[in-house]
């Protein structure tokens, strides 16, 4: 494929009538990717693509022919939501190294989606670029016209450019997907099978400097107070050179991020939340190597709890710490070396401790001034392999705990992408009163091509491995082994578009005792019918008792948990239909008299029009005779376990109304209610077994409910510029008293705890190159 130098002005209007488009060379002869892999596309559904370039950007024009244009699906959605619409995509790898694509999609409704694709991590849609597109439906199909500035890409500083490129098309009504360069699904790779783009020569790229100032206001109201807050700040993106970019946030504002789906957590581990802050989600593929980074640690609730006297209480413990600033530098040079540097600073946080007897008070630091840092060096080679060094560091002011983790991660593939060898070796160091070091290591090998594939691996984690200052890790002090083997069809049959069977096994042992901590053997089947309905099912068994060293909450104590087996079934009807349904069922049967879990969810969705859709999900979940920790008695050194019945009801409603691809209303409503009622108590013995304790009378029941409503309007009024209006209300209620009346639960939420937030935020994208033109005109 050859790109032609643009000689005249091209307007991005979805009409390819300029001379440069008429004279450009054509890429056609697309191949089917799914379902009939490798067949040439028929003439009536052919796609023709042309590529132009200048010193500012690359331009893509595509003619997508369709023998029945009236059936082109074109649901309108917000950015990065494909919906039920035909789409066209271009995948660009400026280094032609087969490992990272910048992917840009345009729907038939002119919606945009973009992602950063790596062969190790797949698609990351949290990455966003600034680019232009326009589509037009015609009597022969539809047209796409795209302009992608070089600022959205990465490529070497060379006079002659050779890029990896592929073009993608999906016809949604038939779920057919096509690519220009044939992607053989017999090989477990995608980006390594791109085509070549030549012709781009002697480009003089502009300065990559972008300023994104913002202003926002928040009106917070509850039954006690109403408060107005005004904020302003600036984000900066600067291209240090063609390969490396600096991102910085000054005076950050994350007030409009999504709410967390908080649950009643009765287990020994913290609840893990998704990262919703754009700075920490966009372009972070380098920093996620080795699974050492959990960015929710930055700005989280303080981890240092003050020591209190007999009559002392903390007035209010903060749920977050303020982020002062953050920056990241990332990119990759001509030799395939990727470098990433992320740094963030949070301010000192204190609490007021009040003496309830004499009324005196004192201040205590619960989170000192803290610096969080991540450094990554990632070397790619042979178009499909990489070796990575990553370091995370947390330094706290004063005598508080510091931490450092260093890791080596490798991902190696054979030349033909048929076998993979991967692994890691991480070393953690914690500097506090104990100064401990720990190791986390793994090694895996697998066949990654063909109908039959397999994998085998092992992992070792020492007792003192701890990356929780800037990462998240629940279990340590074990070694494990796993195997899996699978079969899949590569092309459709008379019944299935896709069919896959997976057999898997996993077993985990405690390092010191060699007792089995975890085990699982299972079979899973996933299918898609010729009418594109999904059906999946599976059976898993844990045939050995497990030694749980975490539920007792005391070091070196364990609870022996029973054998179990579980069954699951799932269906998802074709989303092309106006009405579609998702159904999931799971049943767990324990080798313990009367104990079982039942999880059920049903999610109907209806698309009223290309603009309006509604999705509702209800998910009841019951646990009968569950066993779990509730108390520790110092005087007798007893760990108290309870047998409890737990019922959870989760209701979710989401809806969207799109005026066009730039203006969207979104509604999200969630009500979560969970109760755990204890019906028997036990003392945990040194052997891991339980003895009934009839004299325990504390009320350790739990009832937790939470409500969230988000109603937002967003308008992308210019490339990279967005105005958002948000109304949010939320409430939480937690108690030891059990009331199973659903209406009473809602009344309590709304009458006592409801908080309201109304906010307006405007972000404006400024390209330095445009400001130069403003000053010239002035």
What does this 3D model show about the protein?
The chain has four helices and 44 strands. The strands form five sheets. It has a 24-stranded antiparallel β-barrel. The longest helix is centred in the last third of the chain and has 11 residues, at 742-752. The protein is globular. The protein starts with a strand and ends with a helix. The mean pLDDT is 92.
Give the arrangement of secondary structure elements.
Blueprint: E1 4-5, H1 19-23, E2 31-34, E3 47-53, E4 57-65, E5 87-93, E6 100-107, E7 112-118, E8 122-124, E9 132-138, E10 141-149, E11 163-171, E12 176-179, E13 195-197, E14 209-221, E15 226-239, E16 244-250, H2 278-281, E17 312-314, E18 323-332, E19 337-346, E20 349-355, E21 361-367, E22 370-381, E23 385-396, E24 402-413, E25 419-431, E26 436-447, E27 452-461, E28 478-488, E29 496-510, E30 516-529, E31 534-542, E32 546-548, E33 559-561, E34 564-572, E35 579-590, E36 596-607, E37 612-633, E38 638-660, E39 663-684, E40 690-692, E41 702-718, E42 721-735, H3 742-752, E43 755-763, E44 766-767, H4 768-777
Shape: globular
What structural class do you assign from the helix and strand content? mainly beta
* Averaged pLDDT: 92
Work out the radius of gyration.
28 Å
**Percent helix range:** under 10%
Largest β-sheet summary = 24 strands, antiparallel, barrel
Termini gap = 42 Å
What amount of the residues lies in strands? over 45%
């Amino acid at each position: 494929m050859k790109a032609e130098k643009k000689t005249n002005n091209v307007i991005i209007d979805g009409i390819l009538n300029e001379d440069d488009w008429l004279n450009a060379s054509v890429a056609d002869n697309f191949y089917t990717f799914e379902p009939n892999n490798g067949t040439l596309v028929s003439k009536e559904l052919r796609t023709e693509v042309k590529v132009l370039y200048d010193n500012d950007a690359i331009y893509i024009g595509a003619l997508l022919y369709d023998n029945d244009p009236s059936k082109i699906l074109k649901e309108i959605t917000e950015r990065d939501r494909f919906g039920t619409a035909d789409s066209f995509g271009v995948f660009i790898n400026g280094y032609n190294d087969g490992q990272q694509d910048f992917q840009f999609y345009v729907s038939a409704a002119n919606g945009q989606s973009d992602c950063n694709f790596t062969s190790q991590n797949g698609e990351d849609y949290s990455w966003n670029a600034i680019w232009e597109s326009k589509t037009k439906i015609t009597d022969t199909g539809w047209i796409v016209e795209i302009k992608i500035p070089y600022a959205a890409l990465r490529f070497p500083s060379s006079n002659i450019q050779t890029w990896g490129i592929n073009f993608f098309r999906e016809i949604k009504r038939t779920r057919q997907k096509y690519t220009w360069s044939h992607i053989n699904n017999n090989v477990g790779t995608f980006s390594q099978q791109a085509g070549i783009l030549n012709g781009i020569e002697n480009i003089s790229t502009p300065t990559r400097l972008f300023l994104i100032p913002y202003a926002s206001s928040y009106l917070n109201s509850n039954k006690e107070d109403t408060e107005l807050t005004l904020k302003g700040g600036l984000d900066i993106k600067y291209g240090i050179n063609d390969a490396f970019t600096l991102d910085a946030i000054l005076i950050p504002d994350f007030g409009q991020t999504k709410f967390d789906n908080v649950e009643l957590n009765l287990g020994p581990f913290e609840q893990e939340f998704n990262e919703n802050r754009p700075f920490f989600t966009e372009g972070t593929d380098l920093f996620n190597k080795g699974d050492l980074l959990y960015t929710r640690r930055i700005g989280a609730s303080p981890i240092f709890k003050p020591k209190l006297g007999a009559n002392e209480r903390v007035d209010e413990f903060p749920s977050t710490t303020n982020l002062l600033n953050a920056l990241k530098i990332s990119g990759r040079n001509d030799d395939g070396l990727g470098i990433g540097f992320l740094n963030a600073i949070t301010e000192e946080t204190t609490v007021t401790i009040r003496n309830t007897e004499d009324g005196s008070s004192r201040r205590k630091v619960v989170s000192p001034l803290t610096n969080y840092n991540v450094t990554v060096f990632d070397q790619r080679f042979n178009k499909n392999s990489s070796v990575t060094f990553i370091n995370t560091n947390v330094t706290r002011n004063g005598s508080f705990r510091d931490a450092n983790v260093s890791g080596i991660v490798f991902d190696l593939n054979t030349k033909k992408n048929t076998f993979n060898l991967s692994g890691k070796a991480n070393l953690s160091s914690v500097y506090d009163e104990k100064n401990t070091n720990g190791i986390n290591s793994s090694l895996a090998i697998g066949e990654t091509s063909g109908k039959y594939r397999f994998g085998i691996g092992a992992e070792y984690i020492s007792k003192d491995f701890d990356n929780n200052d800037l990462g998240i890790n629940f279990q340590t002090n074990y070694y494990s082994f796993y195997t899996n083997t699978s079969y899949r069809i590569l092309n459709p049959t008379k019944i299935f578009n896709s069919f896959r069977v997976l057999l898997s096994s996993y077993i985990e042992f405690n390092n010191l005792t060699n007792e089995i901590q975890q085990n699982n053997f299972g079979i899973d089947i996933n299918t898609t019918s010729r009418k594109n309905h999904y059906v999946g099912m599976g059976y898993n068994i844990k045939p050995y008792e497990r030694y749980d060293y975490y539920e007792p909450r005391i070091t070196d104590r364990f609870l022996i948990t029973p054998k179990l087996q579980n069954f699951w079934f799932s269906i998802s009807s074709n989303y092309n239909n106006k009405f579609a349904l998702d159904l999931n069922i799971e049943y767990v049967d324990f080798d313990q008299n009367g104990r079982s879990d039942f999880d059920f969810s049903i999610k109907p969705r209806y698309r009223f029009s290309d603009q309006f859709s509604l999705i509702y999900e209800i998910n009841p979940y019951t646990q009968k005779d569950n066993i779990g920790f509730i108390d520790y008695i110092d005087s007798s050194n007893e760990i108290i376990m309870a047998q409890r019945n737990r019922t959870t009801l989760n209701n979710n409603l989401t809806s969207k109304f799109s005026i066009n691809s730039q203006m969207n209303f979104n509604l999200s409503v969630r009500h979560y209610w969970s109760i755990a009622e204890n019906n028997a108590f036990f003392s945990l013995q040194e052997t891991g077994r339980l003895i009934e304790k009839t004299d325990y009378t504390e009320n350790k029941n739990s009832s937790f409910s939470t409500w969230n409503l988000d109603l937002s309007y967003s308008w992308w009024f210019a490339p990279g510029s967005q105005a958002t209006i948000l109304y949010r209300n939320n409430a939480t209620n937690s108690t030891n008293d059990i009331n199973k009346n659903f209406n009473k639960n809602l009344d309590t939420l709304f009458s006592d705890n409801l908080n309201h937030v109304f906010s307006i935020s405007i972000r404006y994208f400024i390209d330095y190159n445009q400001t130069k033109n403003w000053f010239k005109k002035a």
